[in-house]
Amino acid sequence: MLHCFLAVHRDELIERCRSKASNSVGVVARATDEIDHGVPFFLDQLIKTLKVEQSAHPIDGLKVSGGSGGTTLGLSELGDIAAQHGRDLMHRGFTVEQVVHGYGDLCQSITDLAFERHEPVKVEEFRTLNRCLDNAIAMAVAEFNHQRDSLAAETHAKMHLMEIGFFAHELRNFLNTATLALVVITEENLSLSGATCAVLNRALIGMRALIDRSLTDVRMSAGLPIQHQLFDMADFIDELKLSSMLEAHVKKCRFIVQAVECGLMIEADRDLLLSAAGNLLQNAFKFTLPGTEVILSCFARGNRILIEVEDHGKGLLPAEIEKIFHPFAQTGSDRSGLGLGLAIARRCVEANKGVLSVRTKATSGCVFTIDLPRQISSN
After folding, report:
1. Is the pTM of this model over 0.70?
2. Could you tell me which residues are beta bridge partners of residue 300?
C-alpha cells in the first residue's frame, strides 16, 4: 500500500526534495531549509489520509486532507498545516513560486521513487495524492498571498500615517512661529521691515511650500490626468522668479535669474512643472550658504529644454546623490521639512516625460537639472 511505502521511505523522500531545492537555479532557486519546514508535515498528513482511506471509515480521510476542489481553513488538518506553511514562508522571505515548487518536487520524488522500486500505486491512491497536493498548494498559496497583502497594507498605512504626522508637525511649527511673531509685532508696534516681521514671513513661506508640496503629492498619488498645455518658457521662468523673490530675501541670499531665449516652447502640465521647479528652488534656498547666490536658468540644447537651479551649499557626496530623491530622505544638517520635496519634484518631472538629475560642482554646491522635450514651432 502506498501509505506503507511512504512511511518506510519518508527520510529518503525528504532528502530527494532537499537535493532538488539545492540544485534549483534562476527564479525558482530555493533554500534547503524550506524543505525541512514543510515537506515532512505534508508527508505525515498524506500518509495519515491514505491510511484512513484504507480503514473501515474511509470518509474520515476528508477530515484530514479535505475534499476535492480545495478545502477551507479550519476544516481539515492538511489545510491548517499548509496555511501555516504558506504563512511561515512568506514571513521568512520566500516567494510564492518557491512555495508551489516545494510541493511539486515532493510529487515528483514520490513518483520517481515508486517507479524505481516498482511500487504499484492504485488509481484511488494516486487520486488521493493529487487531491492532497492540490489542497495543500491552494491553502499554502492563499495564506501566503493573504499575509503578503496584509503586510503591504500595513506598511502602506504606516507610511500614510507617518506622512500625516510629519505634515501636521511641520504645519504646527510654522503656525506657532507665525502666531508668536504676529503677537510681538502687534503688542510692541514693531516695524514691518524689522527682524520679527522677517520671522513671520519665513513662517508663512514655509506653510505655503508645505501645503503646495502636499497638494501636488495628493494629485500625483491619485493618478489624476496630466493637463498638457503649450506655454512659453520665458513667461514660466518669470512666474517662478516672482514667487521666489520673497524667499530669497528672507534667506538673505542673492537670486539670479538668467535671461531666457525668446520662443522656447514646451508642452507639459504647467502646474506640475511649477511644483517641481519650485521645490528645487526651495531646496536651493534652504542649503545655499548665507550671502551666496541661487541661480535659475533655462536654455535649449538640441531638441531638449533644460531648467537648472544652482546653489552654493556644501554639495553632495556620491552616495547621497540618488538617495536625496527618496521620500523622507534628508542628507544635510538642516532637517526642517518632510524630506518629500525632491521626491515630489522627480515624480512631477517624470510625469511630463522629463528627467530630473543633480550634479555636484567642483567648487561648492549643486546643480539640479530638469531635462524636458522641446516643442518645436511649426511656424
Report:
1. no
2. 305
